[in-house]
Design brief:
Radius of gyration of chain B: 23 Å
Number of domains of chain B: 2
Oligomer: heterodimer
Number of strands of chain B: 15
Radius of gyration of chain A: 14 Å
Largest interface: A-B, 49 and 54 residues
Number of strands of chain A: 7
Distance between the termini of chain B: 95 Å
Number of domains of chain A: 1
Order of helices and strands of chain A: EHEEEHEEE
Helix content of chain A: 10-25%
Number of helices of chain A: 2
Order of helices and strands of chain B: HEHHEEHEEEEEEEEEEEE
Strand order of the largest sheet of chain A: 2-3-4-6-5
């Protein structure tokens, strides 16, 4: 749809590492510890799997070419605890999504936050809250 | 001079024999029927840590608690406590085995020099972006790490067994409370969640676990060996909170038993949407990782193309 927007250094990234669990099952060492990227795109596929889910987002650049970014989050039950339901991200859903990208330049990131075009916020880390 | 008759000697021998027989029976006898109030003394955190230090092994501590509980009780169906609901471990401390670990500080275990050195190297590696978690291969966390995973949990109590369930990799610990003993020494082998036996002391469940495998308490936390054993006291602290006192014994790695208090919070679930479902750790190839030559973690082969990922879970 749209394009890669920006890469920023955010204190929020460091906060997430120290306060809530990162990714269970495997380390997050392959991802940048503090940098984040934000892209606008549409949902290509949502793999709701354990131990991690992957949201594949199709992003269209200025040149009109599309690339697919993968955003990794926890499994379906943790996402549900964050208020993120399977029906929230159907194929074609427009959204803006932020994550910590991989250090080696692959188009993949830990999903930190997202906002759907209709304004609904989707924050996977909230799934670890005990409330 | 005191004169002892043959009859007195014979009576004494019979009495002594009877006492010894009764004693031997007591060690393996099932607990008496409940219900009753807890007999084990309420202790402060420091007193609990000291209690651990007073006993050389987990088996010794477990027996001492059983003695204090006068053998414990066996639950009748009417006495089964209400531990229903879906729980999870508070994640505000992130990945630490001891929830009381100071922010930015080291784990609170008193480690032997060898294991302290291993821990410091692990923490230093993480600072340099190098980290590998042994469960990345989809192996279970194993006890005592089982206590720390931040996913859904259920606690199912029956008179003869209690099931302590962690959603992650469908991990169920069975605690036998029917009076059976551990597997005999010669038949033991290390297994992820070990062998757990227990007894009820009023509303609390006392558990001894042995036969465990080596592992890590959590990331950036120490290692434990396959000599690790635990004693736990599980108790519902209030309608929303399950608490467990944990003493970990592991002589090769710990200078003294490591006492920690874990809690699990009952999650609000007004729509009853939270369910523990089958956890297939290997269902999505995009989650497959490998350990690199420098010891860190990398994806094996991310694939976001037409044939990417799992067939399941597509909304």
């Amino acid at each position: 749809m749209k394009r890669v927007l920006f890469i920023t250094l955010m204190g929020l990234g460091a906060l997430i590492i120290t306060v809530v669990p990162g990714l269970a099952h495997h380390s997050a060492a392959m991802f940048e510890p503090t940098k984040t990227i934000t892209v606008e795109g549409v949902v290509k596929e949502w793999q709701l799997t354990n131990p991690h889910s992957w949201l594949l987002v199709e992003v269209t650049g200025k040149d009109g070419k599309t690339v697919v970014w993968g955003f990794e989050a926890e499994g379906p039950s943790t996402l549900l605890r964050a208020g993120i339901k399977p029906s929230d991200l159907k194929v074609g859903t427009k959204l803006t999504i932020t994550g910590r990208p991989m250090k080696d330049g692959q188009k993949a990131a830990i999903w930190v936050s997202a906002v759907r075009a209709d304004g609904k916020k989707l924050d996977p880390a909230a799934g670890f809250a005990t409330k | 001079m005191i004169r002892i008759s043959t009859k007195t000697v014979a009576a004494t021998v019979v009495l002594l024999s009877l006492t010894m027989m009764l004693s031997a029976c007591n060690a393996s006898a099932p607990p008496t029927a409940g219900p009753s109030a807890a007999r084990i003394t309420e202790r402060t955190k420091e007193q609990k840590a000291e209690l651990g230090r007073q006993h050389k092994t987990a088996a010794d501590l477990y027996q001492a608690l059983r003695d204090e509980a006068k053998g414990g009780q066996h639950l009748s169906p009417a006495d089964v406590p209400n531990w229903s609901g879906v729980y999870s471990r508070p994640a505000d401390k992130g990945f630490t085995f001891d929830p009381d670990q100071p922010d930015g500080g080291l784990p609170t275990a008193k480690l032997t020099p060898e294991y302290q050195k291993k821990l410091l190297k692990r923490i230093d590696d993480v600072k340099h972006g190098i980290e590998w978690d042994p469960i990345s291969t989809c192996s279970p966390p194993g006890m005592p790490r089982w206590l720390t995973e931040p996913f859904l949990r259920e606690f199912i109590v029956t008179p003869d067994q209690t099931w302590l369930i962690n959603e992650m990799v469908n991990d169920v610990r069975r605690v036998y409370t029917d009076g059976r003993q551990h597997v005999p020494d010669e038949d033991r082998l290390p297994i992820p969640d070990g062998d757990s036996i227990g007894f009820w002391d009023g509303p609390q469940l006392v558990v001894h676990t042995n036969q465990l495998q080596a592992g890590i308490y959590q990331r950036s936390n120490p290692d434990y060996t396959n000599q690790v054993e635990t004693v736990e006291i599980w108790k519902k602290m209030d309608p929303r909170t399950m608490g467990v006192d944990v003493w970990v014994y592991d002589p090769p790695a710990l200078v003294e038993p490591w006492y920690v208090k874990q809690t699990y919070v009952k999650l609000d679930d007004p729509d009853k949407n939270l369910r523990i479902r089958y956890w297939n750790c290997g269902e999505n190839p995009n989650n497959s990782v490998v350990q690199t030559k420098d010891g860190t973690t990398q994806f094996r082969n991310l694939n976001f193309g037409e044939k990417s990922g799992a067939e399941k879970g597509k909304p």
